[in-house]
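Entry 14. Structure prediction run on the chain below.
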Amino acid sequence: MTSINTNASAINALSILRDTNKSMMETQQRISTGLKVSSSKDNASTFSIAQGIRSDMKAFGAIKDSLALGQATLSVATAATKTMSSLADEIRAKIVSAQGDNVDRNVIQDDINQLVAQIDSQVSAAEFNGANLIDGSGSGNFNVMSGFKDDGSAQNISVAYTDLSARAGLNNSIAFDQFGPDTQDSANVMLSKDYATGQFDSMSYTVVDVASGNETTRTVDISGAANLAAVATALQTDLQGLGGVYANSTVSATGEGQLTFGDADAGTVNFRGVAAAATGGGLADLAAIDVSTQAGAASALTSIDSVITTIKSADASLGSAQKRMDLQADFMNSLVDSLKQGLSSLVDADMTEESVKLSQYQAKQQLGVQAMSIANQNTSSILSLFR
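Output returned:
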């Protein structure tokens, strides 16, 4: 049947042309984005997997940054220990030269002092982004994130902080009291340097029972105290543990670097003095080297050998950790590259294939338009029947 209301040929041609245009738009999108799966509507399961891979890649990127920061920090530390080892060898050579009789030991001692100062300068300068692994300012471990587990917890490469300073150990000189022997309700003690965990071994205090005149000196281990408040707590616990007139005595951190000893029962306790012992640096033996005498020169040889061993041990430890970080960084680079390749195979478009499809759809589009033209002419031919 021939109808002017319904042109079946035109409808069919339009449907085919519409499908061709849709397919060509999809191909053009793949060509413009380079992706065959750019959203969940393209392929929901593949897009979900791809998003998971992208998330992992971002996390691994953060780990690579962490490793780079750790590598730089260790690189600075190992550069310092390498130089320090060379300086220590020079000091040893000068100590050996001081063993002779016909030498100017004072001049040699001056040279050694300069080299020791240079070693301490190297230690202080071995800092990167605020972290110094060898000056004793840190405690515990320096952790560098190297990965993460399925449960989301971090995996770390840990490097122990060490102290390679030539600082001599200090005893009875870290804290000083600001009060005299007179009976009073409270007394303040100011530290002569900022409190830091691990830099103080112990603190001693002396108290007097006013009534009896009995004097007691106690020494408290504070090496593990995290802050000055913790020091105060340790001192107070020990002081109250003496019982009697001391049972209600108090110790508190009342300011930056300040401890306050208090007598709750006014006039019963006299706080006579406080002293603290500080840990020396790992190379404290350097500070004690004195070759001005024959005996001192002989003793110094043992000291410098101990120093050299300490430096080499620290350098070996840092070097091992640095090597591990380098290996982990290489692994992370390979892992990220593999993820990129896997992601590409899932979502990237094959541009050669898409170019072929585009040519096909362009030809189909032209033929579809031509078919539409022919179908529309069928209706026009009906007019000839009514002439």
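The first strand starts at residue 127 and ends at 128.
Filed with the rest of this week's runs.
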